[in-house]
Design brief:
This protein is an all-alpha fold. It has eleven helices and two strands. Strands 1-2 form a two-stranded antiparallel sheet.
């Protein structure tokens, strides 16, 4: 059973519900009194083909009901019943409104990771890594020194992408900008941490770039919600998507732009991204060798 509109949208977001019919209390009484009651038919649009099929069946039933209602009331047509289609999010139904936040997520995981990985591997290729190995500097200090400049650059890139997107595509922004900015900072710490981790076990810039591309782009494009919501994926694909920070940031980016998300709505995603940021830097510290074997 559903407890209300909030419960219905939440279950649709999780992929538990495809079609729901909401009939308000007193619908029949208002109908016989000559009033104009409203019935809501909710359809999950995460899978477009399935949604269009469900919409076709639903419109067929609604048209059939309107014809019966018109005959019972002595009308030759069904003009007494009107059917109006509405979208819960992205009411303008513009693809740019959904693509722009997703592109920000994709760019901020690919470019910072590549730059951060090259920053360390370049030291190995040129031989200047010997300066690190011959000094008492700790591995965490070395990695953070390499990571922080790219965190700053990636954060500036985010604000440039945000400004360009708002000016050129004019998507609606209905959520908390402060929350988005704070989570973005955690996100770029995590994505540059991926580069740090990969650079710890690669020896050439080419191999580092290739490893970053394979490890970040493929899961992010296919399993982060960029193409289809992760709730509609199979359990294995759903788990793979949640194993990378892109899927969690996608929820924050889309939510703050289109769904009016604030801190209360992105708490779980914020904690997950912070966990990724900590995990990657700790793993990089353990993977980086202070001395050559």
């Amino acid at each position: 059973p559903l407890t209300g509109t909030g419960d219905m949208t939440a279950r649709m977001g999780k992929g538990d519900l495809t079609v729901a019919l909401e009939i308000p209390n007193g619908f029949g009484r208002e109908l016989h009194q000559g009033k104009v009651p409203e019935v809501s038919l909710w359809i999950d649009g995460s899978m477009p083909f399935r949604a269009e099929t469900a919409r076709g069946y639903a419109l067929g039933l609604l048209t059939y009901f309107s014809e019966i209602y018109a005959r019972e009331n002595g009308s030759a047509d069904s003009t007494g019943v009107s059917i109006e289609t509405r979208y819960l999010f992205n009411q303008a139904f513009k693809s740019t409104n959904a693509i722009m936040p997703s592109v920000v997520m994709l760019i901020l995981i690919m470019i910072p990771a590549v730059m951060s990985a090259i920053g360390v591997v370049r030291e190995v290729e040129t031989g200047t890594i010997a300066n690190f190995r011959s000094t008492p500097i700790r591995k965490i200090e070395f990695l953070l020194g390499k990571q922080i400049p790219y965190i700053v650059i990636a954060t500036l890139n985010f604000w440039m992408l945000f400004a360009l997107g708002m000016v050129l595509f004019r998507p609606p922004f209905t959520g908390s900008l402060v929350a988005l900015a704070a989570v973005t900072l955690l996100y770029v710490i995590a994505t540059t941490g991926i580069g740090q981790l990969i650079s710890s076990f690669t020896r050439t810039q080419v191999s580092a770039v290739f490893a970053v591309a394979v490890i970040t782009i493929i899961p992010t494009v296919n399993f982060s919600g960029l193409i289809v919501p992760i709730s509609s994926l199979k359990p294995s694909g759903h788990a793979l998507g949640l194993a990378f920070p892109g899927a969690w940031y996608q929820t924050v980016s889309m939510g703050t732009f289109l769904k009016g998300f604030g801190w209360a709505d992105i708490g779980a995603s914020t904690l997950a991204i912070a966990g990724f940021a900590l995990f990657y830097i700790v793993a990089a510290v353990f993977a980086l060798r202070k001395q050559e074997a």
